[in-house]
Q: What sequence folds into this?
């Protein structure tokens, strides 16, 4: 693996972790001040964490960075066919759930479900950790 590719993968994972950290901060602040915009922005940061972790996985396995959400989903399908661990971890399904709950419902539609978002923080953390484990193989 080239040093440039390694740097890009590290950057994507670091960005995923940083988006998640900022999400937690913004989510707590939004709850404290009852600011729906901060809560929606926090959900979008969570979604960006999912995107960046997914980009790291796809770059690691397929040597490309997807240009769209559709392309990410198609490439995750391909990876599920090639690596049973990716299918067992339901990476594509989890990516799609993040897109729906965080990006579409919360950020775009403005539907704020605090309990769901609290659960999603833990799910995104696990998603990133699962991808990091896949990067080691």
A:
């Amino acid at each position: 693996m080239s040093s440039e590719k390694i740097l890009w993968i590290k950057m994507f994972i670091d960005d995923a972790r940083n988006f998640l950290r900022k999400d937690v901060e913004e989510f707590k602040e939004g709850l404290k001040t009852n600011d729906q915009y901060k809560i929606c922005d926090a959900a979008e940061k969570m979604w960006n964490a999912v995107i960046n972790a997914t980009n790291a996985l796809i770059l690691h396995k397929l040597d490309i960075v997807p240009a769209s959400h559709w392309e990410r989903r198609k490439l995750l399908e391909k990876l599920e066919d090639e690596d049973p661990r990716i299918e067992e971890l339901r990476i594509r399904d989890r990516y799609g759930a993040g897109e729906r709950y965080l990006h579409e419902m919360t950020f775009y539609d403005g539907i704020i479900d605090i309990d769901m978002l609290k659960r999603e923080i833990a799910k995104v953390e696990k998603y990133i950790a699962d991808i990091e484990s896949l990067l080691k193989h």
Q: What stands out?
A: The chain is about 85% helix and 0% strand. The chain has one domain: 3-135.
